[in-house]
Amino acid sequence: MEEARGLDGVSDKLQAAVTAAVRPQRLRDLLHGTWLGHPLHPVLVQVPVGAFVSTAILDLLPGARKAATTLLATGTAAAVPALAAGWVDWSQLTPERRRVGLVHAGANAVALGLYTASLLARLSGRTARGKALGFAGLTVAGLGAYLGGHLAYAQAAGTNQAAPDLARLPAEWTEVCSLASVPERRTVVRLVGDVPVLIYRIGDRVSALVERCGHETGPLGEGEVTGEGWNACVVCPWHGSTFRLSDGAVVHGPAANNQPMIPVRVVAGRIEIRQP
Ligand code: FES
């Protein structure tokens, strides 16, 4: 599925539609989970998944018709914000991940349709039909969940792509360059082993961050620096994630995690870094 280029036509059109539909930066940050420090979509899906699985269990028990219908209505309503957050995250993924994500979303859309039909059937008194539609929904949602797991655990969508670089830095303090070779209020990139490190300085104070963007490894060293002093931020040139240079805090998504900071010190005019 990751290689299925035939999905790209639909995928590209949907990506453009999602981007056009969710324009305000605040809304995008809200749905990405930038304010939370973790992606929001996996948090939101817990409610519909829990409600739908519980509905299936109650459907197997006698005398639980009302409780099952209540849970099903809860799950169906809770699926809407989960779906919105998922689409916004999906629109900023690489093509391979978007292909899998498209089928994941398609399966979940079919499941939601089945659950909605199940709810309507139950509300009109056709309980047996409602139960059958509910079990069909659970089966299709299971396929969608499997693909969601593949996206998260095999393709690492939504994980902090910068974190592995920290482990590849030297454990001991290691010289990077001279303080004088780093221009003030601009970012420079220096390689430590094969790990690119982003360095920013004002006077004698220096900060160092992993240079590969935590969202999809974009080159932060090529990003624009905005703002002033220690409130200055670097904007990723790939999808616009914005990180504060003093502490790595994510200010705007699509990244939902902070950019990892690297311990740094200045000794006799030389900048040194080490693993946290
Ligand atoms: S790689 Fe996507 S925002 Fe940096």
UniProtKB/TrEMBL annotation:
Pfam families (UniProt xref): DUF2231, Rieske
Cofactor: [2Fe-2S] cluster
Stretches assigned to the Rieske domain: 173-273
TM helices/strands, residue ranges: 43-61, 68-88, 100-120, 132-153
Keyword Ribonucleoprotein among UniProt keywords: no
UniProt keywords, alphabetically: 2Fe-2S, Iron, Iron-sulfur, Membrane, Metal-binding, Transmembrane, Transmembrane helix
GO molecular function per UniProt: 2 iron, 2 sulfur cluster binding; metal ion binding; monooxygenase activity; oxidoreductase activity, acting on paired donors, with incorporation or reduction of molecular oxygen
Family: Belongs to the bacterial ring-hydroxylating dioxygenase ferredoxin component family.
Protein name according to UniProt: Nitrite reductase/ring-hydroxylating ferredoxin subunit/uncharacterized membrane protein
Organism: Actinoplanes octamycinicus
Top-level taxonomy: Bacteria, Bacillati, Actinomycetota, Actinomycetes, Micromonosporales
